[in-house]
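Researcher: Going back to the complex we discussed earlier. I've cleaned up the inputs and rechecked each line, so this should be the final set. Can you rerun the prediction on the complete assembly and write out the structure?
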Amino acid sequence: MVTMSDIEHALASPTGERAAATPAHLTAAVVADATRERLLDVRYAVVDAPPGPLVVAATDAGVVRVSFDPPDVAADELARRISPRIMEAPTLLDDVRRELDEYFDGRRTTFDVALDWRLVTGPFSRRVLTRTAAIPYGATSTYADIARDAGNAAASRATGNALGSNPLCILVPCHRVLRSGGGLGGYAGGLPAKRILLDLESA
Amino acid sequence: MQLPPFQAVYDAHRDVVWRFIVSVVGRADADDVFQETWLAALRAYADLRDVDRLRAWVMTIAHRKAIDEHRDRARRPTPAPTIGDDVPGDSGPDAYDGDDPLWQQVRALPAKQRAAVAHRFVADLSYADIGAAMNTTPDAARRNVHEAITKLRSTWSP
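Model: Rerun complete. Updated structure for the full complex:
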């Protein structure tokens, strides 16, 4: 005699296709369709790099974020600050991923990808980061020099804050800014990461 | 109120959506219905207000794509194949035989009962959420499940 609960138990026990996870090609297809229909405001990829995994995110305007945060933390920040319409889309970030790979291989000294500066909050921060972007590969500057060049020699703390909240780590090379005495200062990715980047560029 | 990243919604619910769709329309048509479900979800996402019921929300969309639109599409006349074309076999739910016999019987049930069973046992939804997904009352959702199980009980043996 088959009881109701026999049936319920059998229905609730995954078998065959119902035990399977979503096929990977479908996730790629959803992202591709969503991109074609312009339904995604932000796309991101996780990139393996010597200083640790990076989350690289882009809008239609360009790369908007390079973060040392874990992917879920980085995605939360982007959802809050730009748009919740965000998905992981590795193949759509091929250009910046290739440039980063070349940089970490020592084969690239400047980046050509378009940048979206919208996460830079104020005009002073923007001047600090614009000045920082001009520090050549292999060279360094100091917080005091950047503050002066950004138009406010007394604003070394604000300069430190602007560099500390640089949304475009590595592409805007805030790791090239050191303390006046030669100390490393700070870094969003941690000081070992800053050391790795400086050593890479001095090789 | 802050919407989580869409990727987080997708990661949390894609497998349950996938299994629901496979259960209701069969594996052969599941790819298309799955993609349509998530694109519709993404289109509606920015206007979503009830962040606490994301699973019920996405299952409502999956239900619409799997039952309503899938049925409409099946009703539309398909062009007759030209002689000499490779004629594919019938890929309707009833012809799907890569599945266990119980679920083949589920897919022979009326659409409402079939969907209610999948919502209940594959997606593990409450009757309130099943009612919301099917645009009916929790009581009607419960009746659909009950009638389905009564019917299966007369035809199925383990």
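Model: Worth noting: Chain A has a mean pLDDT of 93.
Researcher: Good, that matches what I expected from the previous run.
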